Here is the input.
Amino acid sequence: MSLKHPTRWAPIADLLVIVIFVAVGRNRHGLDSTGTVWFLTVLWPFALAWIISGVTMRLYTSVDRTWLRLIGTIIATAILGGLLRGITSHTMFSVFNIVFSIFILFGTAGWRSIRLLTLRVRSNSRPA
Here is the structure.
């Protein structure tokens, strides 16, 4: 088994990385904003952009070029998320988008790499 076999939990894991990004950003910058409304206001543009981009890039349904599809999804999400963020009167494109892209790259590629490594270790430890 490899990453060529998508897991049904992949979209949830990816969205969890975005949720973690928003939560870490709030704590890291010491923002006074609290509550669900603030959290969802920051989260929704990039979560929605991720879903649209992931579907468009066939990140969760195609079994080939997984890493290329992931990179495409990240780039498309940064662009579309920036546009959607602009709707809520935030700065459309800023360093926020760059930080988001880097965090999401490491988060989404990170859990996929750990999963791939785990699957390889398991397959190598099975008796022949």
